[in-house]
Specification:
Strand order of the largest sheet of chain A: 2-1-3-10-4
Strand order of the largest sheet of chain B: 5-6-7-3-8-9
Shape of chain A: globular
CATH topology of the largest domain in chain A: D-Maltodextrin-Binding Protein, domain 2
Order of helices and strands of chain A: HEHHEHEHEEEHEHEHEEHHHH
Distance between the termini of chain B: 34 Å
Radius of gyration of chain B: 18 Å
Largest sheet of chain B: 6 strands, mixed
Strand content of chain A: 15-25%
Largest sheet of chain A: 5 strands, mixed
Chains: A alpha/beta (315), B alpha/beta (240), C mainly alpha (265)
CATH superfamily of the largest domain in chain A: Periplasmic binding protein-like II
Oligomer: heterotrimer
Helix content of chain A: 25-40%
């Protein structure tokens, strides 16, 4: 009798430990180096929410922000943090990607000028220099914004400044920048004493969209690890809402280097923008943005939203 | 025609004294042949006269007309020193080009000189297309083009085959008339054929031996009795 | 009976065309093989068919940008060469320069260009100037070092001859030292021709509004990988053309330099 219990006990221990060893591995490629936009991911990692759900998540920051979706499409990574606008373009190019969750539910992109710039409205951009980083669709955003004022991208000079958005604006090399994240670049400029002023693109004629989303390969959508992942993210987001200070401590515990003035400010500004319902999908939003991109000639056709964006059932 | 003399010539090579207190006179309009073992300092003496030794050499150089020897010498080395990017004609006139006063007159003069050395057909060819003998003939034409009273030649024919050498020696004597020539050679036969005066540099400490003055006009034939007679004396001085 | 060599395609007049074309075809075949074997998805490595298709559909666009990049490279080569030669002359004739300029030369070569690129962009702006500056930076050392090497190893005999001919330093430089240094300089120039495009492209990546590098980034961002490769292909053609053009010019200038390779046909 006792022997049976002992054997049963050993068996259970072994099974549960193998269950731990058999935790599902997920490689998640971030869109950029770790920053407050990735709050929920870091907090989930630090607070053990992944572990609780038998997930072993590896977070990877890319060298080239264009890589993550390609790697997921090629099957080399499980999940990528990407941008809704980019997803539309990728899907148009036949990449086998599907949106499975939302990280940041508002646009973060904005057109930024120096605080004391003479540019007071989008119409003032005529004949000015606008710097952009490589997103592939800044012209579309800009065009959408300029259209309202009877202008188009041919009325401005677009300069690819790669990722030197703030420096190029501060040094006066360009008159305005697009592709600047309102929670990041604005704070960056403020800290160096050259504050900026932002035009929020969703207020200037561009349909609202999810700035940061999670995408996965079409072949992997039945992977039970994915809904668990989203569940952990949701939990982390919740924690951040309920305990913002503790959440910040968790964030900087991941890496001391994250504890600086810029991240502090960005954290504060990003907090209200995280998707409170990670897995939930607003089909209409994706339809409207497709229409906008089609109008700008950036995609060839409108597709069924369900073919590239899904709500995965959380278990 | 000028005679050239150098007194108290001394030359150092690194920290080693090659020779000192040497006196040499080059009689006007005549060929002085300088013989000696390899490395004894013959070239250095010539370079001293040519003004090519900076701080390593010293000598009191005088010319019979009381003017400087500087810029009055033409130099011919063992290698033809032809510049491969210049045509034969351009090589002959290089001196005028360097001095910045090349004109049509010079070009005509060069053509005449090339004809004299038998290369009239080759004025537009390039050195790489010529044989060793032809190239040294161009060098000879270049030397004559300079039209300087003193000619300093450092073993100019030693790199040529015997037959070409023989011909070129005769050509040089024929063309370099009324010039004061210093010819350095390691070949006693060449010295005896071409020289009015033969000096031998040697010994320890290094000194110039007494002048050997063959009779007859250069170029002397090889079987000239004077030549044969003096061979022994030359070899004796060389060996000493 | 005389063979009809003169009429067949092996005639050397056409030979210069046959070999590059064979190479190009071989390259395209190899490319297609690689895409088949690796099963690379089209958004990572498109096959030659797709790329050539994209090339023809966007020919105007690509050629327009190619013109800008070509201009950057050529200007960079000209300015870099002049600067390099001037530095070599400095090093040859001014002793102190060897202590101060030489280290600068070496450092210019070893610093990774992409690290300096943002600084150059800050100084020269986002226009042509910064790309030209990058190209100049990249070729400065090869040209200067090669030219200096040539200038300092002039045949002593020629210099002796010049001395006896009463030539001034400048005349000696112009008529002897410099022509004699041309073979060495030519080596440096060939290297420069091959690497100058890198400078221009890196410059464009850091910040630009035109050029093949800009086009590649843009296409990449839009996931138009076939367009990106088409631009890359044109860039390769441009680089090869510039190299061969410069090589041709140098061979002409150095007509007098005998080549001692032996030909078997």
């Amino acid at each position: 009798m006792i022997l049976r219990s002992i054997i049963a006990g050993i068996a259970v221990t072994l099974l549960s430990s193998t269950a731990c060893i058999a935790a599902d591995k997920l490689t998640v490629m971030l869109d950029w180096f770790v920053n407050p936009d990735h709050g929920p991911l870091i907090v989930a990692q630090q607070n053990g929410y992944f572990e609780d759900l038998d997930l072993e998540v590896e977070l990877i920051a890319p060298a080239d922000p264009n890589d993550p979706p390609k790697l997921v499409a090629a099957g080399k990574a499980d999940i990528a943090v990407s941008y809704q606008p980019q997803l539309h373009l990728h899907v148009d190019q036949e990449l086998p990607l599907t949106r499975i969750g939302t990280l940041v539910a508002t646009p973060l992109n904005s057109l930024v000028v120096l605080e004391d710039s003479p540019i007071r409205s989008i119409a003032d951009l005529k004949d000015k220099k606008v710097g952009f980083s490589v997103g592939g669709f800044e012209d579309a955003l800009l065009n959408g914004m300029l259209k309202k004022h009877g202008l188009s991208v041919s009325d401005v000079e677009l300069i690819n400044v790669n990722f030197s958005l703030s420096p190029s604006l501060i040094s006066g090399q360009v008159d305005a920048i697009i592709g600047a994240f309102r929670n990041f670049e604005l704070n960056q400029m403020d800290i160096v004493g050259k504050p900026g002023r932002a035009f929020y693109i969703e207020e200037e004629g561009v349909p609202a969209y999810d700035e940061l989303i999670f995408v996965a390969n079409n072949e992997s959508l039945t992977n039970p690890a994915l809904p668990r992942f989203l569940s952990a993210i949701e939990q982390a987001t919740q924690f951040m809402m309920n305990h913002p200070n503790e959440a910040w401590e968790s964030f900087i515990a991941h890496d001391n280097a994250l504890d600086d003035e810029l991240n502090k400010r960005a954290w504060r500004d990003t907090l209200p923008r995280f998707a409170l319902r990670t897995a939930a999908l607003d089909t209409g939003r994706y339809e409207r943005f497709s229409g906008f991109l089609l109008d700008q000639g950036l995609i060839k056709e409108i597709r069924e939203v369900s073919s590239y964006a899904k709500e995965l059932t959380v278990q | 025609m000028i005679s050239v003399s150098v007194k108290n010539a001394s030359v150092r090579y690194k920290n080693h004294v090659l020779f000192e207190n040497l006196d040499l006179t080059l009689p006007a309009g005549e060929w002085t042949c300088l013989l000696g073992q390899s490395g004894i300092g013959k070239s250095s003496l010539l370079r001293l006269l040519a003004g090519l030794l900076a701080s390593d050499g010293y000598g009191d150089i005088q010319c019979s007309d009381s003017q400087n020897l500087e810029s009055r010498v033409a130099y011919m080395a063992q290698t033809d020193l032809l510049m491969p990017w210049l045509s034969v004609l351009q090589n002959v006139t290089i001196g005028a080009k360097l001095r910045g006063n090349l004109d049509q007159h010079d070009i005509e003069k060069a053509k005449i000189l090339l004809d004299k050395v038998g290369l009239a057909q080759d004025s537009n060819r390039y050195p790489s297309a010529l044989s060793g003998g032809m190239r040294q003939r161009v060098a000879l034409a270049r030397t004559m083009f300079e039209d300087k009273p003193a000619i300093l030649m450092d073993e100019p024919f030693s790199a040529l085959d015997a037959i070409t050498r023989h011909r070129l020696q005769a050509l040089a004597v024929e063309l370099l008339i009324d010039k004061t020539v210093l010819l350095i050679t390691h070949d006693p036969m060449e010295a005896l054929r071409l020289g009015h005066h033969i000096r031998i540099l040697g010994g320890d400490p290094v000194q110039l031996g007494p002048a050997i003055i063959p009779q007859g006009k250069p170029p002397r034939p090889v079987d000239d009795p004077h030549v044969v007679e003096l061979q022994q004396e030359v070899w004796q001085q060389l060996a000493a | 009976m005389q063979s009809s060599d003169n009429d067949t395609i092996t005639n050397s007049q056409w030979r210069w065309l046959v070999r590059p074309i064979t190479l190009a075809i071989g390259f395209i075949v190899l490319w297609q093989l690689v895409t088949w074997v690796t099963q690379a998805p089209v958004y990572i490595l498109p096959g030659p068919g797709k790329v050539l298709d994209s090339l023809f559909n966007n020919l105007g666009l690509i050629l327009g940008h190619a013109g800008t990049t070509a201009l950057e490279i050529v200007l960079g080569l000209i300015i870099g060469t002049l600067l390099g030669i001037a530095s070599a002359l400095c090093l040859t004739y001014f002793q102190p320069a060897r202590h101060w300029l030489l280290p600068v030369l070496v450092v210019s070569q070893s610093l990774p260009v992409f690290a300096l690129a943002p600084v150059l962009v800050l100084w020269f702006g986002y226009g042509l100037a910064s790309k030209v500056a990058m190209a100049v930076l990249i070729i400065y050392f090869p040209v200067a070092a090669a030219c200096y090497d040539g200038l300092r190893h002039t045949n002593a005999g020629w210099l002796d001859l010049a001395r006896t001919m009463n030539a001034s330093k400048i005349a000696t430089l112009r008529q002897i030292r410099f022509p004699a240094a041309l073979p060495a300089l030519a080596s440096g120039l060939r290297v420069a021709a091959a690497v100058a495009p890198i400078g221009a492209i890196v410059g464009e990546w850091v910040g630009s509004s035109r050029g093949l590098g800009y086009l590649m980034l843009h296409a990449n961002g839009r996931m138009q990988i076939d367009l990106m490769f088409a631009a890359l292909f044109v860039l390769a053609l441009l680089a090869i053309s510039i190299y061969f053009l410069i090589n041709r010019i140098l061979t002409r200038l150095l007509f007098w330099l005998p080549e001692t390779l032996s030909f078997t046909d």
